[in-house]
Design a protein that fits this description.
It is built from one helix and four strands; from the N terminus they run E-E-E-E-H. It has 64 residues and is of the alpha+beta class. The protein has one domain. The protein has a four-stranded antiparallel β-sheet. Strand 2 and strand 3 form a beta hairpin. 0% of the residues are buried.
């Protein structure tokens, strides 16, 4: 795999809790967290967009 250009999320304020995203050459996205940089998740842009929209709309909020 070629080197990825990791970008830190603009919402990550503390160095110990940063989320990084990189675009891979195959059209997928890679996501990692600063505490576990060797653990990398991959997803598609559409799937990540759906997750972010759901979180913002509180679709995934805990129900009591």
């Amino acid at each position: 795999m070629s080197a990825l250009n990791w970008q830190k999320s603009s919402y990550s304020e503390q160095a110990s809790s940063c989320v990084y995203v990189a675009a891979a050459g195959d059209g997928t996205l890679r996501i990692r967290e600063s505490d576990e940089p060797d653990t990398v998740l991959w997803t598609t842009p559409d799937a990540l967009r759906t997750l972010i929209r759901g979180v913002k709309s509180a679709e995934y909020a805990r129900r009591r």
